[in-house]
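Structure tokens please, single chain.
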Amino acid sequence: MKIKSILVSQPKPATDKSPYFDLAKKYNLKIDFRPFVQVEGVSVKEFRQTRVDICSHTAIIFNSRTAVDHFFRICEELKITIIDSWKYFCISESIAFYLQKYVVYRKRKIFYGNGSFDDLMDLIIKNPDEKFLVPLSDIHKQEIPSKLSKANIDYTKAILYRTVSADLSDLKDVNYDVLVFFSPAGVASLMQNFPDFHQNGTKIATFGPATAKAVETHSLRLDIKAPVTNAPSMTAALEQFIKAQK
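Here you go.
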């Protein structure tokens, strides 16, 4: 079957400089983007039930802009005054700069890594006397808490937001040759929105082992897998599959 249309379960790229657009142009494809999941904040009532005392911590670890947004949201809703002495540890420079949305950057103690948590851990370990707060989603990788625990870091997880299925009812009568997923939650959203979904000739592409496992768990067929040795990105894996179909 020749591939003509692809639905990517992520937001549309912010700029035209995306390998997806290059792929669409090169193979005359229709590529649409639609998030299958959305993020919603935990309410003040729910957060209070966790008995996490934000002000008893001296440093905050951020692994995403979403974590930054919901940390300052919950502080505002709880009427917590931002403490000047707080230290901020960000997984990347871009997230560190994003803090300017909420605090005066030059007046804060901000540390950042190169995009990997291992790199940020080196900075965290150099601050052993801090008590860290880690804002997270209800569904999160265990990498962060496990590595903090292994290094005997004093930390508390704060679940401030959750990932839920988006309403995809407008896609009911829309068919694509390939569906692309990047998280188990995206696969779960497909099945929640369309419990009678039959894959038939539709190809499913996944990024990461957890997403691939989710496809199998829902008794679906996995056709395109990334990353692999000869296809480190999703667009590379898609292109290889398209070439093989010719």
